[in-house]
From TrEMBL:
Signal peptide: none annotated. Residues 99-142, 348-381, 430-486 are annotated as: Disordered. Residues 99-129, 465-478 have a biased composition (Basic and acidic residues). Residues 148-229 form the DUF4099 domain. Residues 289-342, 374-421 form the DUF3945 domain. Residues 130-142, 348-370 have a biased composition (Low complexity). This is DUF3945 domain-containing protein. InterPro entries: DUF3945, DUF4099. Residues 437-464 have a biased composition (Polar residues).
């Protein structure tokens, strides 16, 4: 069985529609980008260069009607514009066709314009209802991404999973569900199997079933990403696998195949770091910001990110006001540009995240010590000591393949691995050992080799004879009889 059949829910984004607009004063066709709080519409030229800025709307008829009624009611001077809804893959082509009709009208062109024109009276009787349903939506492209309403959710199913509307709202997880996203964290759920109950951690999402009803999809944790089978027609190369394991992103655009229609879908691929699912996102849904942490991106840099490639940026400013540099890359699962500081230990980070989440949800559940730390696999002797809670010495390599050394200790209570450089370890351990020895000498009457024959009491911190007299006593004192009881 291929990954395509086992991960049907991970299909790339469904086709969406683009909203084009004719400014009746300028007589120019543009693509809608957004609308601000004052009702002013922002548009861009309908070109390939700007396609990542186009406002996209779910092609569902009911959803589009709801959205457009709300959009039109917010618009300042709405009578100055005419709107057209066209499929995203042919938006640029249709915009050019509509512009030709504006410039040189023909009966055929008029027919095309009427076919795609959208009027505000689509569902006038629901205008107030739509206003209420969309009142929490932002007036940017995010406003188009609400796919579901709370009342569409089967709350009885949620209850059977151990979840409620109040719980999801309190954790700020309901909003991403309504937008069609997966929850951004793992949730503890219980599944009743009749004779037993399965308890696990999973991400949740909402999807539309074949009967039109909204269903709850459960995304459980996999041991590792399944990269051995074809993924929507794509066979992962060794380089693809290496990039996905190390950074979580494949780093290039590939054509995936829609199994139903045969359509080629240019997409990027990433790994869900919480569940290890393979996630694809069509390139038309990639949104690249104009700037990142104070660094304005040029067209070449934007194109690099649009192609799913990593980009190294210098001179960024952190929230604390300090300058830093880092590699950034667009992540298909998160749907935004992320920072890649040190992803060389991606598997271990994902495992640690899972352990931390499980610990917070099921604190009584014991934690297993990881066999690998920062790419270093422990041998049997090291691992046995490590999982027993002992501190072990390891030699590691950083992301530039430079060696460094340190000490690691596994905390069974938290499931975390603590790392210390040699200097940190010695600074913590040596004073403690010195104090332990001194306590034994001064308080418990014990001696060490350097001081066991000294008759004068030692001062605080002294472990060796302080002068020749004490040293002579140490050297000349006869050994004690082995038969004498202490």
């Amino acid at each position: 069985m291929s990954e395509e059949t086992t991960n049907k829910q991970d299909m790339p984004e469904q086709l969406s529609d683009i909203l084009l607009v004719l400014d009746k004063e300028k007589m120019k066709i543009q693509a809608v980008k957004s609308i601000d709080e004052n009702g002013k519409m922002e548009t861009v030229d309908p070109t390939k260069k700007n396609q990542n800025q186009f406002m996209r709307v779910d092609k569902s008829g009911d959803f589009f009607s709801n959205f457009f009624s709300n959009f039109f009611s917010q618009l300042k001077n709405p009578t100055n514009f005419s709107f057209f809804k066209v499929p995203a893959p042919i938006a640029i082509e249709k915009a050019q066709e509509l512009q030709k009709q504006v410039d040189k009208p023909t009966p055929e062109g008029e027919k095309v314009m009427k076919e795609h024109e959208v009027k505000a009276q689509t569902q006038p009787d629901k205008k107030q209802e739509n206003q209420n349903n969309m009142e929490t939506a932002q007036t940017t492209t995010e406003a188009t991404e609400y796919r579901y309403k709370p009342e569409q959710i089967d709350w009885d199913t949620m209850k059977n999973l151990g979840l409620s509307k109040e719980y999801l709202e309190k954790r700020n997880l309901l909003d991403p569900l309504l937008r069609g996203y997966k929850t951004n964290e793992l949730l503890p759920i219980g599944i009743n199997l009749g004779g037993s109950i399965l308890r696990t951690d999973a991400r949740l999402s909402l999807q539309q079933g074949e009967d039109g009803n909204v269903i709850v999809a459960i995304h459980g944790i996999k041991k590792e990403p399944n990269l051995h089978f074809e993924f929507f027609g794509h066979k992962f190369t060794d380089e693809d696998k290496k990039n996905l394991i190390e950074t979580g992103n494949m780093g290039r655009v590939v054509n995936l195949v829609n199994s139903k229609t045969g359509e080629l879908m240019p997409s990027i691929i990433s790994i869900d770091r919480l569940t290890n699912d393979v996630i694809a996102l069509r390139t038309e849904f990639i949104k690249i910001p104009d700037e990142i942490k104070g660094v304005k991106l040029n067209d070449e840099q934007k194109q690099t990110l649009m192609e799913g490639k990593p980009l190294y940026l210098e001179g960024m400013i952190s929230s604390k006001g300090t300058e830093f540099s880092a590699t950034v890359q667009f992540n298909a699962d998160k749907r935004y540009v992320e920072f890649l500081f040190d992803r060389s230990n991606h598997n271990q980070q994902a495992q640690t995240n899972q352990q931390n989440t499980q610990q917070s949800n099921q604190q009584s559940q014991p934690q297993d010590a990881p066999r690998t730390f920062r790419g270093k696999e422990l041998d049997d002797e090291q691992y046995n000591k490590f999982k027993a809670g002992q501190t072990i010495y390891v030699e590691l390599k950083d992301k530039k393949d430079q060696p460094y050394k340190g000490y690691i200790t596994f905390d069974k209570d938290t499931g975390k691995t603590n790392f210390e450089f040699p200097g940190q370890y010695k600074a913590r351990v040596e004073p403690a050992e010195t104090h332990k020895t001194q306590t034994a000498v001064n308080s418990e009457g014990k001696t060490n080799e350097a001081t066991k024959n000294v008759q004068e009491p030692l001062k605080s911190g002294q472990q060796r004879p302080k002068n020749e007299k004490q040293q002579e006593q140490q050297d000349n004192k006869p050994a004690k009889s082995k038969g004498r009881k202490m």
